[in-house]
Amino acid sequence: MATEDERYRQSTQYRLWSFSPAKLAELRETTNSLAKTHITGRLLETKGPDQGTDSLPEFLTAAEETQLLKFFTVELMRAAIFCGLPTEVRATATVFLRRFFITNSVMTYPPTELLKTCLFFGSKAEGLYARLAKFADKFPNTSEEEILAGEFLLCQGVRFAFDVRHPFRALEGAILELRRHPDLEKPRVDAAHVRAREILKFSSLVTDAYFHYTPSQIMLAALSLADRGLAERLVQGAFEASRNGEQADPTPKSDLRDKVMGTIESCRELLATEPPERLEEYWGTLESTKLIKPLLRKLKKCRDPDRADLVALQRARREMAAQKEIRQPKAGGDASVFGSEIGTAGGNDAREAKRRKMAEGDDVFGPALG
């Protein structure tokens, strides 16, 4: 039977959406560069050949796009809370948005529209089927068509990988394991449980933790932020003894334990950059507005003119597909099968010639016997 680690390595989250920090930064730089090239060409076509490159706007850098993506991630989470969506739906929608904008630029497709699509599609991915009309009514000046316009685009952007592995269930299992130890006080475990869950609901989603670490590593890092001693107790317990109670070779286990703790520590440092308190104490405050507002103005000037309106883009693609539809050729007449049209003069003449030939010739059964 495959182990939990082997099953995770077969998942799309590991195969398609796990990157080293260097690889993720490279992908974002490539996406930013391609977006600049494509938007430059479209802007020059719109303005005419007489306009030079001096008339082009200043484009966002990859770092600025990452900062804006974090802002729109927080906006999505606020919208999910406003809509009363469950934690798993909120987390899945957030992961969809962040996955999409790894290979797509915020300058190419509008994040404000796609985050609504992510929320609606994330609900369906988690088995929560809400009525589209009721969902659209929760957002001002938003139609049903606007929510659905980016749905197939989103599916392409996430490479049709709709299975998202979250660390919430792993945390519940870890807490159950800790409660089995009689020397651990229940209030301490309960407090760590609440705090770790708050970290998972915000810090792991706003950062790139899902791209760099497994759900169990994210869970242990969040638990370590909540109570380092409890996290170390769990890790240490996993390496103390083998299943039959015999002490295994300490050297390999010691090396592996140190490697695991090092990974958890690096994830812990990443989560610590965005503690849950920043949702209220930083994002949406004057301090964050001073940072984000200039980037939003810059984004407004350098958007892709052909893809800023998802509804119009969807309609144009449908019309293009209809025009390119290959029409099947009409089936030929009887002549294509029988050599001439049935009931025509040509057909009658052929049959008459055959009849005369048989009448003028010998008996069809040949000469008489003997």
UniProtKB/TrEMBL annotation:
Transmembrane domains' residue ranges: none
Key words of the record: Cyclin
Domain of life: Eukaryota
Domain annotation Cyclin-like: ranges: 74-156
Record carries keyword Transcription regulation: no
Record GO terms (molecular function): cyclin-dependent protein serine/threonine kinase regulator activity
One BP annotation, GO: regulation of transcription by RNA polymerase II
Entry keyword annotation includes Cell membrane: no
A Pfam family that the UniProt record links to this protein: Cyclin_C_2
Region (Disordered): 323-370
Family that this chain belongs to: Belongs to the cyclin family. Cyclin C subfamily.
Protein name: Cyclin CCL1
